[in-house]
Design brief:
Order of helices and strands: EHEHHEH
Shape: globular
Strand order of the largest sheet: 1-2-3
Number of strands: 3
Number of helices: 4
Number of domains: 1
Strand content: 15-25%
Helix content: 25-40%
Distance between the termini: 28 Å
């Protein structure tokens, strides 16, 4: 992100604890962050047990989370939020 200078869209492969998303969303230029993780259960556990790591990114409308199974089902153009 530093090398780009003005990132607008960010893809995160993995990152279930959401700390990477937290850091990406600090950039004012970022309009959308898409995270795709293989383990939906681990993401839910991290959300519940490590709230200080995600620091509220689940409430940020710029953040989209998809499990790998959702990405395969919906294809690369559609992503749905894990609840």
């Amino acid at each position: 992100m530093l090398a780009h200078g003005n990132p607008k869209t960010v893809f995160i492969g993995g990152g279930g604890e959401a700390a990477t998303a937290r850091e990406c969303l600090k950039w004012k230029s970022v309009e959308k962050v898409v995270m795709c993780d293989i383990d939906e259960i681990a993401c839910k556990i991290c959300r519940e047990q490590l709230p200080e790591w995600n620091a509220g990114v689940y409430d940020d409308p710029r953040w989209v989370v998809a499990s790998l199974s959702q990405a395969r089902f919906h294809g690369p153009a559609r992503h749905t939020m894990m609840s």
